[in-house]
Amino acid sequence: MPAAAATGPAGPSIARFGLGTAAVGRPGYITLGRDLDLPAERTVEALRERTHALLDAAFAAGVRYFDTARSYGRAEEFLGGWLAARPRAAAESVVGSKWGYTYTADWRASGVPVHEVKEHAVAVFDRQVEETRASLGRLPDVYLVHSVTPDSPALTDPALHERLAGLAAEGVRVGLSTSGPAQGEAVRAALAVEFEGRPLFSAVQSTWNLLETSAAPALAEAHAAGWLVVVKEGMANRRLADRYATGPDTAVLREVAARTGASCDALALAAAAAQPWADLVLSGAATAGQLASNLSAAGLAVAPSDLAGLAVLAEPAEAYWRTRAALPWA
C-alpha cells in the first residue's frame, strides 16, 4: 500500500499520485470543460478507449494507484477490463473503489434529474460489493463508503460495521470518502468507530485543495492514526486549471505558477502533495495532455513561502461547497 514520502528538492515521488476515473467513466460529470475534453460522441466504447489510454499513460509514468466507484458509470468495468488485459499492471497496481451511490443517469450526460442516489444501507453494500468484485475481477485493495457525512448511518449501523469488518478480514482496507463542509467532523467520527474493540476504518479519501482546506486538521489526525489518506478534487473540479483560474481571486496562483514555470494544475496538485498527512493525491484527468500536466507535479517542490502565500486562496467551506453544488452536469 502506498505510504507517504517526504517531498524532496525535486518534488514528491510519482508514487504519491494516483489516477481517478470519475471524469471518464460516464458521459456526464461536473468537471469544467468536458465539452472540450471528451469525444463528441460519448459512447461506451469511446469512453472505454479513453479510460484505457489514460490508464496506460499513467502506468507508464509510474502511477500505481487507481481510483474508481460504483457510481462512476462504467468506470469499474473499464478498469477491470484494463487490468484483465495487462497482467503486469494487475500485479503492480493498487485499486481503490467506493460503494454507497447508485448510478442512475442511464448513460446520459444531461437532462437527468438525478445522476446518482446515495444510500449507506447493508442491502446496498451487499449488492454493490459483489458488483464491484464482478466488474474488477477481484475485490479492490481499498473499499470506501462513498461520501460520508456526519449523519451517515455508515458511522452508527452495527450490522453494516460487521459486514465491513468481514471485508477487512479478507484483506481489504476499509474506509470512507467525505464531502461537504463538515468533512472534518465526519473523519473524526469515523476515527472513533470500533468493531469488537478495534478501529474499523483505516482509509479516507477527502477533498482538499487550495480553495477548500478545512479538512486538513482531521486528515492529519487520520494520518497519525495510521490511515491511508487520499486527496481527491485537488484541482477543485478544474477551477484551478490554467483555463479557468483567470480571475483576480486566483492571481496569486498564476503568479507562483509563472515564477516557477509550472502549470496552475501542477502547482495545485503539488501543494496537495506537500501536505505532510497526504499519502496520495489523485489526478482526475480526462485527456492525455491533462494527465501529463498533472503528473508534472511530481517534479515540483513547492517552497514553504509559496505554500504560505497560496493559503490566501482558501474559501469558507460552506461557500466552496455551494459553488461546487452549482456546477452543471455536462
Could you explain how this protein is built, in words?
InterPro entries: AKR2_Oxidoreductase (IPR053135), NAD(P)_OxRdtase_dom_sf (IPR036812), NADP_OxRdtase_dom (IPR023210). The protein has helices at residues 34-37, 44-61, 75-85, 87-92, 122-136, 158-169, 183-191, 216-224, 251-260, 264-273, 288-295, 304-310, 317-326, and strands at residues 17-20, 65-67, 94-99, 101-103, 116-118, 142-148, 173-178, 194-195, 198-199, 203-207, 228-232, 280-283. It is an alpha/beta fold and 330 residues long. The chain has a single domain, classed as Alpha-Beta Barrel (TIM Barrel). The strands form three sheets. Strands 1-2-3-6-7-10-11-12 form an eight-stranded parallel barrel, surrounded by six helices. The longest helix has 18 residues, at 44-61. It is globular and about 55 Å long. It starts with 16 loop residues before the first strand and ends with a helix. 49% of the residues are buried. Residues 2-8 have low confidence and may be disordered.
Radius of gyration equals 19 Å
Please tell me what the overall shape is. Answer: globular
Structural class by sheet pairing and helices? alpha/beta
Number of domains: 1
Succession of helices and strands: EHHEHHEEEHEHEHEEEHEHHEHHH
Euclidean distance between termini CA atoms: 34 Å
Q: What's the CATH class, please? A: Alpha Beta
Determine the mean pLDDT: 96
Sheet-strand content, in percent, reads 15-25%
The name of the CATH topology is TIM Barrel
Uncertain ranges: 2-8
Widest sheet: strand order?
Answer: 1-2-3-6-7-10-11-12
Secondary structure tally, helices: 13
Q: What's the CATH superfamily, by name?
A: NADP-dependent oxidoreductase domain
* Total number of strands: 12
What is the CATH architecture descriptor? Alpha-Beta Barrel
Q: Residue share in helices?
A: 25-40%
Main β-sheet description: 8 strands, parallel, barrel
Organism: Kitasatospora arboriphila
InterPro entries: AKR2_Oxidoreductase, NAD(P)_OxRdtase_dom_sf, NADP_OxRdtase_dom
Domain NADP-dependent oxidoreductase: 49-300
Protein name: Aldo/keto reductase
